[in-house]
Write a structure and sequence with these properties.
The chain is α+β, with helices and mostly antiparallel strands. It has one domain (3-143): Aminopeptidase. It contains 4 helices and 7 strands, in the order E-H-H-E-E-E-H-E-H-E-E. It has helices spanning 13-31, 36-46, 90-105, 118-126; strands spanning 3-7, 52-57, 60-70, 73-81, 108-114, 130-135, 138-143. The protein has a 7-stranded mixed β-sheet with strand order 1-2-3-4-5-7-6. Strand 4, helix 3 and strand 5 (108-114) form a beta-alpha-beta unit. It is globular.
């Protein structure tokens, strides 16, 4: 299985919205309720082709990744995979690569996860992330390999 990243383009807007619905729709619905119009507006406000990357598996669009550098850390803003690509090591591999990149730079890797997304929470714990704080519906987590 060949996993790669490519820069998102404006042409990926609809794919990324449908991906979000497929990957996160049940969690969003459990927390806020899924309102198509509100979710579309939220997506359109946040869609950032210059910062987002599309995850491909064997040349097929399979997900998206958004990472930004913050003061002394990398922040994993979003990682979403279509359900048919989940549980196959794609996400774990991408996150492991981000951990290695953060370690090389002497940075922490941080993220937020919805409390209802227990599957992702367990993955992050297994990969070495620790819970930093809980606020409202989200859990802030941090990986810091080298002090």
């Amino acid at each position: 299985m060949r996993v790669a990243l490519r820069p998102a383009t404006e042409g990926d807007r609809e794919f990324c919205f449908r991906l979000h619905e497929a990957a996160m729709g049940a969690y969003v619905a459990a927390v806020w309720g899924w309102d198509e119009r509100e979710q579309r507006a939220y997506h359109d406000r946040g869609f950032a082709p210059g910062r987002w990357q599309v995850v491909t598996v064997d040349g097929t669009d399979a997900g998206m990744l958004s990472v930004e550098q913050r003061d002394g850390s990398l922040y994993l803003g979003r990682i979403e995979l279509l359900p048919e690509f989940q549980g196959r090591g794609v996400g774990s591999g991408l996150i492991t690569d981000l951990i290695a990149d953060a370690d090389r730079r002497g940075f922490a890797l941080e993220l937020d996860v919805l409390a209802v997304n227990t599957r992702a929470y367990k993955l992050y714990r297994r990969l070495g992330f620790r819970e930093v704080r809980r606020r409202d519906r989200k859990i802030a987590m941090r990986y810091r390999g080298t002090p």
